[in-house]
């Protein structure tokens, strides 16, 4: 039984990876999860300099998920290179580094520093507010997405995955812009923008007012967008958004995802990633599927 998938020329032993920002760099989770079982570990977003993140409170529970306005707090690329990459190098799993920034130059500085490291792939978080565009996210305008993707591709030594924002009118337009600019793969969805109000204090629950909604509540939106995007482009699509079980993951594969990322569920169940891998294997055995690639885009239409 073959569970291997290939993303931009990089082979993963199975299609299950972690979603950026929900697993750190795997250090804490390695007490619960055998990282060798995972197809890949995706690091928390890293910038060219340390970011303090947003003021607290910055996490709130909501029906079917959570809101977060962490603000991409991270220790910066130098710490990641010195501490996190050597840690992940010990394991037989692929390493995907998620990159964030406030300007194109910020992203390029990180991408260039990663060029000589053991990172296998780069995932570019274009849901970051673009300072020069008045805080509109890089991934919310097709021309802006095209520009940053093409500039990153010109500097990157590793294959580039563009992580798309769902907070757009037409996800296929964004997917096509990323592909046209040379992206090797795309991943989606990032969080949906949401808000929670405390009716007793009559104020916002999050200091940032809005936050990113993740968890099972967003899964139907994510499946729809992954289906649309995978039919709009010829590059691999990594699907994510509310995956809690193997059944959820298989739904994304059938919709056209070549791999899947598990995010918010790591907070609820630290064993979620391995349970999903085992569940996919059981499903394949039960239905006599010899190669996982039979499932990818295998939806009967």
Question: Per CATH, which architecture?
Answer: Alpha-Beta Barrel
* H/E topology pattern: EEEEEEHEHEEEHEHEEEEEHEHEHH
Class by SSE composition = alpha/beta
As a percent range, the share of strand residues is 15-25%
Low-confidence stretches: none
Individual helix count: 8
What's the structural domain tally? 1
Shape designation? globular
Question: What distance separates the N and C termini?
Answer: 26 Å
Helix content bin:
25-40%
- Spatial order of the strands in the main sheet? 3-18-17-12-11-8-7-4
The CATH topology corresponds to TIM Barrel
Architecture overview:
The protein is globular and about 55 Å long. It has one domain (5-53, 72-192, 213-294): TIM Barrel. The protein is built from eight helices and 18 strands. It has 301 residues and is of the alpha/beta class. It has helices spanning 77-89, 104-114, 142-155, 171-180, 219-232, 246-255, 265-268, 272-286, and strands at residues 5-7, 10-12, 16-18, 40-42, 59-62, 65-68, 94-99, 121-125, 129-130, 136-137, 160-163, 185-188, 192-195, 197-198, 203-204, 210-214, 237-240, 259-262.
